[in-house]
Amino acid sequence: MKKRLISALLTFSLVLSVTACGSTDTAKYPNGKLYVYNWGEYIDEDVITEFENETGIDVIYDMFETNEIMFAKLAQDNSAYDVVCPSDYMIQKLIENDMLRELNFDNIPNIKNIGEQYLEQSKDFDAENKYAVPYCWGTVGILYNKTMVNETVDSWDILWDEKYSGQILMQDSVRDAMMVALLRNGYSLNSTDPAEIDAATDDLIDQKPLVQAYVVDQVRDKMIGGEAALGVIYSGEAIYTARENPDLVYVVPKEGTNVWIDSWVVTKESKNPENAEKWINFMCREDIALKNFEYITYSTPNIAAQENIEDEDIKNSKVAFPDLDSFSTESYKYLGNAVDRMYNDAWMEVKSADY
């Protein structure tokens, strides 16, 4: 999903790529290369260096901003990357399009650190747990500034309140934006009903004059800086924002939310599959999982890492580790190409609407 200053990270990515592609230091990297494709600012950069130093594998690290961008890249060239970190429904789509390689878990013994509940949830998109290893998980909710919003925030409806015109940030993501409108109307976030999708589309078009911006990573920084009153955000971002600005509060609306899992997968045409499995195993190591959690603040499914969190407020945080039985939840599913087109057409209609 996601993070800090994306421009700085893109620069970081380019530096890594140029350095790696131009490297002839086989003494330093005797065990080949690994091409990694991940969300923006979704890893502690030191972890990449540690992996390189421990394994002698040269990491070329690139970033994407949405699942759809990532899928298009892999559809164009499935061998461009070895290991990728998509979200649940997109993993299902990749599996159904025969774009992933089954994992050899003999090479991933540290999967023992991943909580059984997260592996069970993964069966919603990876029925036999053959292709994906959970990396991060969380919810989607509303982040609001309590100095700018003086009423109870407990419903997606507030994102249509005209008094917050120009102060609302929406996710520039077809599934997340459609989710908000579908749940607001009492529909499933996996609806395949054209009438329900049309109603959600109309609601988003009606909302558009109130929206300051459709953003992904930038919602966090805008909210920290007091540039907006309300924003749709991922729970991991909310943990970070609360550290930076104590006036920011995260809530899961009463109509429910998406509970998502991002997982590591290996592409079907990976040129370095064994190195990819070494990467996944490394990411499942408890010290590495903890280091990543402390840096990116997205909830870890690594039980060993959870137990070693020293900050008791974070360890017991209902944002980081919520009781999922306390509110209504669903997980995104891949709905098929025809419904995909319906959602994408709806989102294009919203984005192109004049007001």
Q: Mind explaining what this structure looks like?
A:
- Strands 1, 2, 3, 4, 5, 6, 7, 8, 9 and 10 form a ten-stranded mixed beta sheet that branches.
- The chain contains 14 helices and ten strands.
- The chain is globular.
- The chain has 355 residues and is of the alpha/beta class.
Keywords:
17% strand; globular; alpha/beta; 10 strands; single chain; ten-stranded mixed β-sheet; 14 helices; 355 residues
In short:
The protein has 355 residues and is an alpha/beta fold.
Give the topology, please:
Blueprint: H1 6-21, E1 33-39, H2 45-55, E2 58-64, H3 67-76, E3 83-84, H4 88-96, H5 116-122, E4 133-145, E5 168-171, H6 174-184, H7 194-207, E6 211-215, H8 218-224, E7 230-234, H9 235-244, E8 248-251, E9 257-266, H10 273-283, H11 286-296, H12 303-307, H13 312-315, E10 329-330, H14 337-352
- Mean of the pLDDT scores? 92
Report, as a whole number of angstroms, the end-to-end distance.
Answer: 29 Å
Looking at how many chains there are and whether they match, the oligomeric state comes to single chain
Strand content: 15-25%
Largest sheet: 10 strands, mixed
Number of helices: 14
What is the CA-atom radius of gyration, in angstroms? 20 Å
| Secondary structure tally: strands | 10
Shape from CA axes?
Answer: globular
Weakly predicted, low-confidence segments: 1-24
In percent, how helical is the residue content? 40-55%
User: What structural category characterises the helix and strand content?
Assistant: alpha/beta
- What sequence of helices (H) and strands (E) makes up the elements? HEHEHEHHEEHHEHEHEEHHHHEH
